[in-house]
Request: fold
Amino acid sequence: MRAILNFVICACLCFASSALAESDLRFASVDIYLETSEPVAAWQFELSGKYGKMKVVGVEGGESAAYQRAPYYDREAVRLGEADRIVVADYSLADIDELPSGRTRITTIHLMLDSEDDEDIESTLITATTYDGRVIDASISLVLRTGSAL
Amino acid sequence: MTHENDTSEQLPSALIDQLKSADQPDSLITSRVDREILQLAESQFSSRRAIWHRRPAWVAIAASVLVAFIIVQLREPAIVDGEAIYADVDLSGQIDIADVLALARTRGNGEKSQAELDAFAMRIVSLAAPEETS
Reply:
């Protein structure tokens, strides 16, 4: 009986490991950069995968002191592993001289994906505003840092 | 002061006899009868005393439960409804994080709590309603 049980467990492990190898899933981190000409007090963007499979597994704060806490995102969807896209946003009530301007990393998103090409990940800036709510002409970019395969 | 008995010899003897007989007890309660009456009384009222002794305990327990319930209700944080303030505050044509910033800027007037602002922001980034996030 024990031999049968061991056989079943080994078969399951082999099947799982081969499935992971075939899917080529790997962890990756995506640094999101916002470039503005004025200090930014609020920003919002959406990140999604173009073709491949992408799951968001975590979101962390940015480099500026005004945005070091974790931004707003759908934590429940991430926790349940259902975030194949994500909307991230944050605002800051810091003084204007403490708000970041120029090119700054506003957040880093941790993903599980089956591609090493950052062209497969699409980021869309929804809004970026000044401290008084005026919309800024801004651009968003990302840098993908792939990790080891699972 | 002259005592009444001092002048009793001047009263008629018949009246004196009636007064003496009236001064005697009608019946004699012996110590045995007294004990029996006491035992009967104790047995009669002992059960009532137990009830009266228990009742304050039940009242105290009920009052404690009621007070604990009220305290828990008062300490429980109010459910923050992000829907109530989910609106295009800055009239930009879309509901986004800039609306949360606009509301947060009015907090100096004590209009919105941080919990309400967080609920509003979480509603904006929710993946459950993608058509309203941008």
User: Anything to note?
Assistant: Chain B has four helices and no strands.
